[in-house]
From TrEMBL:
Family (UniProt): Belongs to the TonB-dependent receptor family.
Domain TonB-dependent receptor plug: 113-218
Species this protein is from: Daejeonella rubra
Entry-linked InterPro entries: Beta-barrel_TonB_sf, CarboxyPept-like_regulatory, Plug_dom, Plug_dom_sf, TonB-dep_OMP_SusC/RagA, TonB-dep_OMP_SusC/RagA_CS, TonB-dep_rcpt-like
Record keyword Phosphoprotein present: no
One Pfam family of this chain: CarbopepD_reg_2
Residues of the signal peptide: 1-20
Subcellular location: Cell outer membrane
A single Gene Ontology CC term: cell outer membrane
Annotated keywords: Cell outer membrane, Membrane, Signal, Transmembrane, Transmembrane beta strand, Transport
Membrane topology: Multi-pass membrane protein
Domain of life, per lineage: Bacteria
Name of the protein in its database record: TonB-linked outer membrane protein, SusC/RagA family
Length: 1002
């Protein structure tokens, strides 16, 4: 009996050993949608340290017990657990993850999972950025991030204006950019195809770690690194055609003749003789063209066990839709990281950039103002001049374009680099030492050639003549500037998890930043010999030094040193704390005022982790409540050494036989002058539901800027006091939604967002009636109103008759046909006191709609974007220095009683009609169909035979249509000048772009 029992025991033991014995499991991991092999997927034996990774073909091999569970994880995909159950071959299809909570978000001096954030941070993937054919990658963020205002320019190579959550200051409101750790004020040099992700940090909890530099928000840019375990060659190329989507509606020759004849009759002037003016010229047709745009990028990456390398080369060529304008850009980037062992790695990054710009030398308003009755030219060197009534003020636009074509050379070079070393020690500590540099050199040379011969057509008894301006001499100009930046960061990070419930990450560091710049410029006019139209001669020394010229030079330098720390703590992934502190010292201010301390605290509660929520709420996967408060500074956009003003020459005095100028400071600095102080509160809720198909993020913020750096005019002297004065608030709501789903081979997502911002100047010079004006008084900043609001009269109609003038308030010189203005103060007269707030140039609402569709190998994206609540000032219509061409609205001008109650009489001598009023304002609301793109990804099995890994081709249309009530080329009026924003004074058109492109990987 004992022997039988022993035999049974041995038999069972042998069965158990056979079942638990390791076996070799192999297989392939692919994308569940595209069937593309996934490279670098982590395959782990659950509950052990045994693991492997997939190779270039997506294949893996691992030795595990036959009853093991394998865990497959890959960034951007949902993890899978599969029971081996004795199988030796397992093929796995991973599904793209729709859960953003595990996404790693880059923050200041580190990174965090989105689940653990207590601040308001929006992340945009690099693949979404590179799909838009924009030279500047920031433009591709438009409409994708709630609370982000972006105003683009159609000028080739131009940077957009960016505002995060409104306007914080009357001085500077642009965010900083942090590119792989380097603090920048622009990212013109970054290739869009080289970006891994962009994070927009909006609240104090996220930005306080940057101290006085983070006051206007921060955009963190992370560039691509070599994919683990593979060598890859990727090529992207696109070719596009740019067109002007709409022209400004001006009258043709017939309309001009009728309107000008009516205007002459209104002022009792003699009729104009149009006999020799038989042309019908559309000047806009002539200055614009269909322009080419070409973007190319080649990257080679390799990753081994000890090192990773990526080389990226980019070339962009953009012609302007305005003739003779173009922009070229060249990029080169090298990144390499070396891993000596598990504890030490070093690396570096070099980014080189070169641009060549050739702007068109003509005013867009010139084409609008030029009379359409004039022909263009007789031959290559003979052009028609404008009629006598505008000849001295308005030139032939085509003559100006052709004369100045290729007479300017504008080139620049920039090199941005960094090196770092990272040491992990005592298991939980990580020390990182980084050194950065940014150096740029810009130069331009220009030439002013001789003029053309002009034909002056005969008018009445005056015969046709030809003129050549002998007073114009050739001249050259030359400019050079350079910029230097040196930055170093030293950080120590401690990260640990205690008893599985307590997760702690602590950061301490110091950083320093030094910047310097200088520039020289000059021009010289020849008085004897004509300088040749040859770039080899466009230097200042080409003419005798005795010839007249002007020369200027400038330079500046500043330094900053900072100490900072941050603690992130979570308990059971339910309760979150984020606290940071930073102390900054800045050379811009006097020694006694240089140092300031800033900080923030953020709290989060993952409500969905509570048992009462899990047990009672169905369909909602994740709910987090978060709040943060912080204080930080703003010293961006200020001059250097503000406490030491420069000197200026003012009055002169006579002493004996000599005259001596007096020298005074250019301004009077407040002895307590310091940075602007920003304090903000941020409260939000994040929700995910229906198996992570639905996500929502709702945020309320309340941010206040105090001690605004302000220039206050001093009475009786031509100077001003530079002091800290005033308080500005920005309050708003942001809502981002997304729904992502997959039905068989069809997947789709829709992601709308909307934000509202209320800007208000809480106080500024309340005790002495102080206001800040911009754009010649068109804009005004004063207590109780928004920054830079439009200030003028409110139109209530047009005076139809003298009877109207008798019963309505009016100016003393008002006449029938003039604009009638509202009597705001009710005193029965129209005076300066009747000017009022006419609206803001800054939108109250920003919104975007992003839709993506995919079916098998086809994919499609549709993006829309818009703003609401702002106004645009049609400044181009306000000029009356000459008789100018008429926009089509003037066809409805007042002629007699009852003909118009909006358009005043045709008479450019009546100055009252050119006063700033809402007659010159248009609603700035618009919605733009930003992008429509259709792509096709080729079958991987077919590509493999040709030695390719992936190939996607696409057709794309950008800025296809804009729904707007504005009459200009684009409703995106400039807002870069904070106190004088929103004026359309000849805005360069935002072109429609039609693109064909391909993305190819080997």
């Amino acid at each position: 009996m004992k022997r039988k029992s022993l035999l049974v025991f041995l038999f069972l033991l042998s069965c158990f050993n056979a079942f638990a014995q390791n076996i070799k499991v192999s297989g392939r991991v692919t994308d569940g949608i595209s069937n593309e092999a996934l490279i670098g997927v982590t395959v782990k034996h659950k509950g052990s340290t045994i693991g492997a990774q997939t190779d270039l073909n997506g294949d893996f091999s691992i030795s595990v017990p036959s009853n093991a569970t394998l865990v497959f994880t890959y960034l951007g995909f949902t993890a899978q657990e599969i029971l081996v159950n004795g199988r030796t071959t397992i093929n796995v299809k991973l599904s793209p993850s729709t859960n953003e909570l595990d996404q790693v978000v880059v923050i200041g001096y580190g990174s965090q999972k989105k689940r653990d954030l207590t601040g308001s941070i929006s992340s945009v993937r690099g693949e979404d950025i590179e799909k838009s054919p924009n030279t500047n990658p920031v433009s591709s963020l438009q409409g994708k991030v709630a609370g982000l205002t972006i105003v683009n320019s159609g000028t080739p190579g131009a940077s957009p204006t960016v505002r995060i959550r409104g306007i914080n200051s009357t001085n500077a409101a642009s965010p900083i950019y942090v590119v792989d750790g380097v603090i920048q004020t622009n990212i013109d040099y970054v290739n869009a195809a080289d970006i891994e992700s962009m994070e927009v940090l909006k609240d104090p909890s996220s930005t306080a770690i940057f101290g006085t530099q983070g006051g206007n928000g921060v955009i963190v840019v992370t560039t691509k690194r070599a994919a683990k375990g593979e060598t890859r060659i990727a090529f992207q190329s696109s070719v596009g055609l740019q067109t002007v989507p709409n022209q400004i509606d001006v009258v043709d020759a017939s309309g001009f003749k009728n309107l000008y004849a009516a205007q002459l009759a209104n002022i009792n002037a003699a009729p104009f003789d149009f006999t020799n003016y038989t042309a019908n010229t559309n000047w806009q047709d002539l200055i614009f063209k269909t322009a080419m745009q070409n973007n190319n990028n080649l990257s080679v990456s390799s990753s081994g066990e000890k090192s990773t390398t990526i080389v990226n080369v980019g070339y962009n060529n953009q012609e302007g839709v305005l003739r003779n304008s173009r922009f070229q850009r060249y990029n080169f980037r090298l990144n390499q990281e070396l891993k000596f062992n598990d504890n030490l790695k070093v690396g570096g990054d070099v980014n080189a950039y070169h641009y060549n710009s050739d702007p068109a030398d003509v005013s867009l308003n010139n084409a609008l103002w030029s009379a359409p009755i004039v022909g263009v030219q007789e031959d290559a060197k003979t052009y028609y001049s404008m009629p006598s009534f505008q000849r001295a003020q308005v030139g032939n636009p085509i003559a100006s374009l052709n004369r100045n074509d290729q007479t300017s050379i504008n080139k620049g070079y920039r090199a941005v680099g960094n090196i770092f070393a990272e040491l992990t020690f005592l298991k939980n500590f990580k020390f990182r030492s980084s050194f950065y540099t940014d150096m740029s050199w810009n130069g331009s040379r220009g030439y002013n050639p001789l003029p053309y011969t002009f034909i002056n057509l005969g008018e009445g008894s005056i015969p046709t003549t030809r003129t050549f301006d002998n007073s114009i001499r050739t001249s050259v100009d030359q400019n050079q500037s350079e910029f230097r930046k040196f930055q170093q960061d030293q950080t120590l990070t401690y990260e640990n998890t205690f008893n599985t419930d307590h997760k702690l990450t602590a950061l301490a560091g110091l950083t320093s930043l030094y910047t310097a710049s200088n520039s020289l410029s000059g021009n010289r006019r020849d008085t004897t010999l004509n300088i040749p139209n040859d770039p080899d001669f466009w230097y200042l020394n080409i003419t005798n030094i005795a010839n007249p010229g002007n020369y200027n030079g400038s330079g500046s330098e500043s330094a900053q040193q900072s100490y900072f720390g941050r603690v992130n703590y979570s308990f059971k992934s339910k309760y979150l704390v984020n606290a940071s502190i930073r102390r900054d010292g800045i050379s811009k201010f006097a020694p006694e005022n240089r140092w300031g301390t800033f900080g923030s605290v953020g709290l989060g509660w993952v409500l969905s982790e509570e048992s009462f929520f899990k047990d009672n709420i169905k369909g909602i996967d994740f709910v987090k409540l978060r709040g943060s408060w912080g204080t930080l500074g703003n010293a961006q956009g200020f001059g250097e050494n503000l406490y030491r003003p420069g000197l200026t020459i003012t009055d002169v005095g006579v002493f004996g036989n000599n005259v001596y100028p007096s020298v005074t400071p250019s301004y009077v600095p407040d002895p307590n002058l310091h940075w602007e102080v920003i304090r903000g509160l941020d409260i939000g809720m994040e929700v995910q539901g229906f198996n992570s198909r639905l996500s929502a993020d709702l945020t309320y913020y309340n941010r206040t800027t105090k001690d605004i750096l302000t220039r206050v005019p001093l009475p009786a002297i031509s100077s001003y006091l530079l002091t800290n004065l005033g308080t500005i608030s920005n309050k708003g709501l942001e809502l981002s939604l997304a729904w992502r789903d997959k039905i068989g081979n069809f997947s789709y997502s829709i992601a709308p967002n909307i934000s509202h911002n209320k800007n208000n100047v809480e106080s500024i010079g309340d005790n002495f009636n102080f206001q800040i004006t911009g754009n010649g008084g068109v804009n005004r900043t004063s207590s109780g109103e928004s920054i830079g609001y439009f200030y003028g009269y409110k139109q209530v109609g047009v005076y139809q008759s003298t009877a109207d003038l008798d019963k309505m308030p009016a100016f003393a010189n008002s006449l029938p046909g003039d604009i009638a203005y509202a009597d705001i103060n009710g005193d029965g007269f129209i005076t300066d006191a009747d000017r009022t707030n006419l609206g803001s140039p800054f939108p109250d609402y920003n919104y975007g709609l992003n839709l993506s569709l995919a079916y098998k190998s086809f994919d499609m994206i549709v993006e829309g974007q818009g703003v609401a609540g702002n106004h645009v000032y049609t400044q181009r219509r306000t000029s009356n220095f000459a008789v100018l061409n008429y926009e089509s609205n003037r066809l409805n001008a007042f002629t007699r009683a009852g003909t118009s109650n909006i358009e005043p009489i045709l008479d450019n001598t009546r100055g009252n009609n050119y006063l700033m009023s809402n007659y010159f304002l248009e609603p700035g609301d618009y919605f733009r169909l930003r992008t429509v793109q259709l792509g096709y990804t080729f079958n991987q099995a077919i590509l493999k035979k040709a030695g390719m890994k992936s190939l996607r081709m696409y057709l794309s249309g950008q800025n296809l249509n804009t729904w707007s009530k504005t009459t200009g080329y684009t409703p995106e009026a400039p807002i870069s000048n904070i106190i004088g924003a929103g004026a359309d004074n000849g805005i360069y058109p935002i072109p429609s772009v039609y693109t064909f492109g391909l993305n190819l990987t080997f």
